[in-house]
Design goal:
With about 475 residues, the protein is mainly α. The protein is built from 22 helices and 2 strands. A hairpin with a 3-residue loop joins strand 1 and strand 2. Bound molecules: alpha-fluoro-amidocarboxymethyldethia coenzyme a complex (FAM).
Length: about 475
């Protein structure tokens, strides 16, 4: 096939292949793994073609400030599941959040997309059928049990250990039963890496509700953990394990929440860490545990906890229903205290995050009169002007974390230290989708070049 693709005469053949790769609906009667097995050879050819045509071309300049500046904007990674546009926000395999809400299968009576469908989309670029999504729900329910020793690890954690640390410990420990680690020890061929990576990824995603539920119950003394119901979808089971399964609106919120937090292209800390650690052929559990440790930072996923802490402090200081003036004063005091306004700003985005907008629309539909939702809206009217006036932040607009806590807390999930765990459950979808492809396409060990300040000075002195 590769030789056929090299000549211009064969372009129509390639177009047929491209159509097969990018057709927007999944062929019926195929499982996700079967479909992947069909797509992998096509994508291998596609990558080969792209590298042959463009591999030696420059891809923009690198300036020294990028080495010191957290590599902002440096083109350095391949990430297929999603691409982030600074103004428009995220697209999952080319689809915006509203398009995903419209196109992905829903639960009976539900309006939000099922994350099962989003995972299929991230992995294949295709919209699955309702039946395919139902099969994924069942498959994940069947894989959901966690080993007893992992339960014991969690049960022994002091409740004062942050839920994210507990989460990371448990996910690391799942590596005990990794299909990939075992296959590697058994001498699996490189060409077959993706199969056990797929199995581990499915296991990982499937086990996260039991881990998250156990942490929540242990830390916040919320009673005994119920069993997973194989007839229910992933978000319904997660909600039940947290104690909110009877609340249909909360279950819908979980479906939306997991969908929109899943992936945000490859350069953010959790996604990039997962890819980096995975590139050493660490199995998906080890790679994703590393992602979680990055997500636990306050400039990244922990910001959803920080927003609620900040809002609660604000309310206790200036009272509920405070005036815009009082809110402005509080925001300025935050900045003058040398702190960031959590939930605002972004390393890539330059407009309001569409993940914020999706949550706002959910709130307008389900909880328009909630006082915390109203405060989040009031802050939206106040903060951007202040950040612009302060003159430092490149993006004065809200990100995903500015809104999520207000929604969770409306339904009674008020324990803000737990919020990033839910972000982590969702982020597994994006990180594993890419890990599977990295193994399928034989992505190499990541090893960028670092420089010392002395080396940079010398380089430019030598050139002048
Ligand atoms: N409040 C106050 N100052 C801010 C700010 C904010 N919300 N956002 C940016 N700045 C400051 C930033 O600290 C930096 O100051 P210094 O020059 O003193 O270091 C300056 O503005 C330039 O920063 P930038 O180029 O605009 O942003 P970065 O790309 O360096 O950082 C963020 C991006 C997200 C880390 C930053 O905007 C921030 O700290 N926001 C608050 C924390 C937050 O909400 N994080 C969650 C991001 C979210 F999308 C996610 O990952 N889940």
């Amino acid at each position: 096939m590769a030789s056929v693709l090299r000549t211009s005469r064969t372009k129509p053949v390639w177009s047929a292949l491209a159509r097969a790769r990018f057709s927007s609906t999944a062929p019926k009667n195929t499982t996700l793994k079967e479909r992947l097995a069909e797509l992998i050879p096509l994508e291998l050819e596609n990558v080969k073609r792209v590298r042959a045509e463009h591999g030696k071309k420059a891809f923009g300049p690198v300036i020294v400030d990028q080495l010191y500046g957290g590599m902002r904007g440096l083109p350095a990674l391949i990430w297929d599941g999603s691409v982030l546009d600074a103004d428009e926000g995220i697209r999952f395999r080319g689809k915006t959040i509203p398009e995903c809400q419209e196109l992905l299968p829903k639960a009976p009576g539900g309006a939000e997309p099922l994350p099962e469908g989003l995972f299929w989309l991230l992995v294949t670029g295709e919209i699955p059928t309702q039946e395919q999504v139902t099969e994924l729900s069942k498959d994940w329910a069947a894989r959901s049990a966690i080993p007893e020793f992992v339960e014991e690890i969690l049960d022994r954690c002091p409740p004062t250990l942050h839920p994210m640390s507990q989460f990371s410990l448990a996910v690391t420990a799942l590596n005990h039963n990794s299909a990939f680690a075992k296959a590697y020890q058994d001498g699996v061929s490189k060409k077959e890496y993706w199969g056990p990576t797929f199995e581990d990824s499915m296991d990982l995603i499937a086990k996260l509700p039991n881990i998250a539920g156990r942490i929540y119950r242990n830390v916040f003394a919320a009673g005994k953990l119920p069993a997973i119901d194989p007839s229910k979808d992933y978000s319904h089971n997660l909600s039940t394990l947290l104690g909110f399964g009877d609340n249909a609106a909360f279950v819908e919120l979980m479906r939306l929440y997991i969908t929109i937090h899943s992936d945000h292209e490859g350069g953010n800390v959790s996604a990039h860490t997962g890819k980096l650690v995975g590139s050493a052929l660490s199995d998906p559990f080890l790679a994703f545990a590393a992602s979680l440790n990055g997500l636990a930072g306050p400039l990244h996923g922990l910001a959803n906890q920080e927003v609620l802490i900040w809002l609660s402090k604000m309310q206790s200081q200036i009272g509920e229903n405070a005036s815009d003036e009082a809110v402005k004063e509080y925001v300025w005091a935050t900045l003058k205290g040398g702190q960031v306004v959590p939930g605002y700003g972004h390393a890539v985005l330059r407009k309001t995050d569409p993940r914020y907008t999706a949550q706002r629309e959910f709130a307008l539909k389900h909880l328009p009169d909630d006082p915390l939702f109203k405060l989040v809206g009031q802050i939206y009217n106040v903060v951007p002007d202040i950040l612009l006036e302060a003159g430092k932040a490149k993006n004065p607009w809200p990100n995903v974390d500015a809104h999520s806590g207000a929604l969770l807390s409306h339904y009674g999930l008020t324990q803000m230290q737990f919020y990033t765990v839910l972000f982590g459950v969702s982020r597994a979808f994006g990180v594993t989708a890419q890990l599977i492809w990295d193994r399928a396409l034989g992505a190499p060990l990541e090893r960028p070049k670092s420089y010392s300040t002395a080396a940079i000075e010398k380089m430019f002195k030598d050139k002048s």
